[in-house]
Amino acid sequence: MTFQKHTSWITAAVLACIFLSGCRGGRGKDQEVAYVSAPQAFLRDRVAAVYDKVGTVKNGDRVEILDRDRRFVKVRTAAGLEGWMEQRNLITQQVYDRLQKLAQQEKDDPVQATGLTRNDTNLHVEPGRDTDHLYQIAEGAKVSLLKRATVAKPGAAPAPKPALKKDSDKEPAKPAMEDWWLVRDQDNHIGWVLARMIDIDVPLEIAQYAEGQRIIASFVLNEVTDADKKIPEYLVVLSEPRDGLPYDFDQVRVFTWNVKRHRYETAYRERNLNGVLPVTVTKANFAKEGTLPVFVLRVRDDNGNVSEKKYKLNTPIVRRVLAPGEEPQRAVARKKKR
What is the full DSSP assignment across 71-90? Predict the structure, then answer.
């Protein structure tokens, strides 16, 4: 009799554990996690045409997935609030981790320019309109530009070429391309943004000298005193005004200030560069000349190798700074085409 009672007690305990485990709905297990990618989204009490709003979640909020119903998911917020929301307003933990990794990898990138967003803009995990995104930047927000990339524009047919050759000799048409910028917002979120969604902040006093070219970035090299004012002197990198170029910039200009004439003048210009960002600006000591502004351009040769070209500014003169063992390039005479 004692044995039977003991057996009954064990059986009841096991059944109770199973029952309680079922009632908890598996809370002891790791829940699937997602993050809100919309600026704001409502939580519903049920999936139906008529529903009550039980709360809101905002961009970047972490939620746990409890259930799914067609295009809706039931979530629990960090505060314990539960409700249904649209699946399209969420990204997975894997996408979030990729964005975190990107931010860590690029956290020390030098800023190439600043700009303002033209519209509400998504931060993508990689260049491309169809790629995943999490954070959204509001219209008119200030961002720092770090890197440039170019990718094929989705849905854009290649421009037709005139039929000058046989079909077998024709080169395949290239797809339309568009530029993207890797940016950092004021909350230190990093991601890729379509370039045409950003107006690059260029000083008005030098923007007028662009001569139809696109200013990619500008840097303050130095300051000179004119009367009681401090006037900045600039390094500017430029390219043709179109997307899809195989380089980040193809020419540079240095603008120095003429104290006697009270105006900017071009102290240095270099063209035909296969320039690669980032451009770096610093200072260095040059013995008798003292401490001078220095800038370094990265350029790619015909074999795809990237090297650095260093320059110093001793206003208003810009000169190359040769590395140990480096020889100055000889000028190559070019024949005029007749």
Answer: TEEEEEETTS-EEEEEGGGE
237: which residues sit within 8 A by CB, 6+ positions away? Answer: 215, 216, 217, 218, 248, 249, 251, 252, 275, 279, 297
Please state the pTM of the whole predicted model: 0.81
To which H or E segment does residue 177 belong?
strand 177-184
Mean predicted lDDT score pLDDT of the chain: 87
Encode pLDDT of 178-201 as tens digits.
999 999 999 999 999 999 999 999
Report the alpha-carbon distance of residue 211 to residue 240 in Å, rounded: 10
Q: What are phi and psi of 326, to 5 degrees?
A: -80, 140
CATH architecture of 27-105: Roll (2.30)
The dihedral sign for the CA sequence 239, 307, 321, 223: positive
CATH number of 108-154+176-201: 2.30.30.170
Cβ neighbours of residue 305 closer than 8 Å, sequence gap 6 or more: none
